Amino acid sequence: MEKRVVAALGHHAVGTNFPEQYKAVHASVKVLADLIETGCQLVITHSNAPQVGMIHTALNEYAKNHETYNAPMSLCSSMSQGLVGYDIQNMLHSELMDRGIYRTVSTVITQVIVDPYDEAFYHPVKVIGRILTKEEAQEEENKGNYVVEVEGGYRRIVASPKPIDIVEIDAINALVQAGQIVIAGGGGGIPVLKQPHRLKSASAIVEKDLTAGKLADLTDADILLFLTGVDQVSLHYGSSHPEPVDHLSAAQARACMADGEFDETGMQPKIEASVNFVSQKAGRKAVITSPEKALAALRGEAGTTIQ
């Protein structure tokens, strides 16, 4: 029986600029094709932070120089989903055809419902956009936005709320059930607030790893696979005595998070998403590893498994 796998591609797997993205995705689709060839029913999600930052910066520079309106974060997020999704679906289709495998690959522009009262809105952590002058930073604060001082000036920071639900999940599941390969929830999805029968966009960036976990849960995946920049999770990371970990139970992972073992914007969201996912249904597992170790990690021979 095929295993349904949600594969989450990190920055390492999609690059940080156009030339890097092309090279990184070209390598990543070979890994994804290997997974498909070994019998995995694949749903793909991906990082977008550098790409959405480039889009946000470019559009706001244009607005500044042409005296027009700044671009809302929701539009920047949607553009980045298409930008990265296109490369993945195009190159993966070609890679599969080269192997004699005909499978349709589709990108779904995805909206994610968030809670307007999420505490993250009072504790923004995601840095976006270009470097601002002091005057521009003051203008942003006057509009109710947050800024942080960095080398050379200031930059805007936005909240990273947790995903509650995925608006397009029925369409995603229909495609999956039809045997198609789906790319969804890119960059965490576009955050929206549910207001009676309308969806209002939120100026935020949903934590992509938590959206990957939500996507895995709502598609009833067997495995949540994080393909990131390290071969496996390490305790005491960054110290003189890191301790690589092969396996963690959900309870052990929770204890490590409570002890502050993981970086708030680095490994912790992956661990939290993994724990949430495996705790919802028996028999599930989450795997954290590098793209190069993906197949070995699924066999239990590399990476870190949480179950």
TrEMBL record:
Reactions that this protein is recorded to catalyse: hydrogencarbonate + NH4(+) + ATP = carbamoyl phosphate + ADP + H2O + H(+)
Taxonomic placement: Bacteria, Bacillati, Bacillota, Clostridia, Lachnospirales
Alphabetic keyword roster: Kinase, Transferase
Organism: Porcincola intestinalis
InterPro entries referenced in this protein's UniProt entry, alphabetically: AceGlu_kinase-like_sf (IPR036393), Asp/Glu/Uridylate_kinase (IPR001048), Carb_kinase (IPR003964)
GO terms, molecular function: carbamate kinase activity
Domain Aspartate/glutamate/uridylate kinase: 3-289
SUPFAM superfamilies linked: Carbamate kinase-like
Record protein name field: Carbamate kinase
